[in-house]
Each structure stands twice: as structure tokens, then as C-alpha cells.
Write a structure and sequence with these properties.
Length: 151
């Protein structure tokens, strides 16, 4: 499957991505609905890129290059029909390339209940640097991971 990655282009794509996010984990458990998802996707400090496969949006990544955690991969979401086909790995590699142009570190958080995503991030070379207990929802942690730019 051929995957291309490019910036999000228009309102239709924003709405598609917001629906995708609001209807999937971990955002369901975290309580992020369509309106909150759309607000995140349209925030001016965020860079949003979509993965296109078979002429469809297969997923997207949101990168934040501002604030305390410059190089923060805020969200990555893969359409259900494209999961397990390498779209997430492609988006992570793309995000790292963007980040490592100007920052030595890439950061991502994963919810403690999201074991599959955590395994992916660790397989891609991310290491746990901290845990925020009860950060978004009581009884669960957000795990902060970091990957350093290769020398």
C-alpha cells in the first residue's frame, strides 16, 4: 500500500479527522468528543498532517513545536480500516523528521490503558521519562516518552 503524507488542506478533511478521533480510543475513554477534537485540529499552534492511502485519509498526526515540550507529537490517529498496515509507523517517522530538523528531542504521551500504542512507541525507540498519575482521568496515567535525535 502506498502512503503519502501532507498537510491537512480544508474543512472537509478537518471534519473527517475530528470524527475519526472522537470515535476511537484512547479519545473515547479520555472524553474527547467531536467538538474538542475539531478544536485541537484547528488550533493555530498545531501542525496537522494527514496520511493518504487508496485516495482516503488513513490517519493523521498533530505536532506541537511550541511551548515547554517543543517537538511534542500531540496526537496520532489511524482510521480503523487502516490499522495494522504501517500507517502509524509512517506517520511517526514523518513526525520525527519534522521535529528533528529543529529539535534534539521528540516527545509523545500515551495513556496507561493504551498498551498497543505504547508498544509501538517503544519499538520505535521512545523511552519513558515520566508518568503523570490521574492527569486526565482518575485511575489512569499519562506516560511521557522521549526519543533523541540520532547523532
Amino acid at each position: 500500500m502506498s502512503i503519502s503524507i501532507r498537510p491537512i488542506l480544508n474543512t472537509d478533511e478537518i471534519e473527517t479527522c475530528a470524527r475519526m478521533m472522537a470515535a476511537s480510543e484512547p479519545w473515547i475513554t479520555l472524553g474527547r468528543d467531536y467538538a474538542a477534537s475539531r478544536a485541537t485540529l484547528t488550533h493555530p499552534d498545531k501542525d496537522v498532517f494527514v496520511a493518504i492511502a487508496n485516495d482516503q485519509i488513513a490517519g493523521f498526526v498533530i505536532i506541537n513545536m511550541h511551548g515547554a515540550l517543543v517537538g511534542y507529537i500531540q496526537s496520532i490517529c489511524i482510521a480503523e480500516t487502516f490499522r495494522g498496515h504501517g500507517v502509524g509507523s509512517h506517520l511517526m517517522q514523518f513526525a520525527e523528521e519534522q521535529i528533528f530538523r529543529t529539535s534534539a528531542n521528540a516527545f509523545i504521551m500515551v495513556s496507561s490503558f493504551n498498551d498497543g500504542a505504547r508498544r509501538l512507541y517503544e519499538r520505535l525507540g521512545y523511552h519513558v521519562v515520566g508518568e503523570l498519575t490521574d492527569f486526565i482521568i482518575k485511575g489512569h496515567s499519562e506516560i511521557l516518552l522521549r526519543k533523541t535525535r540520532p547523532s
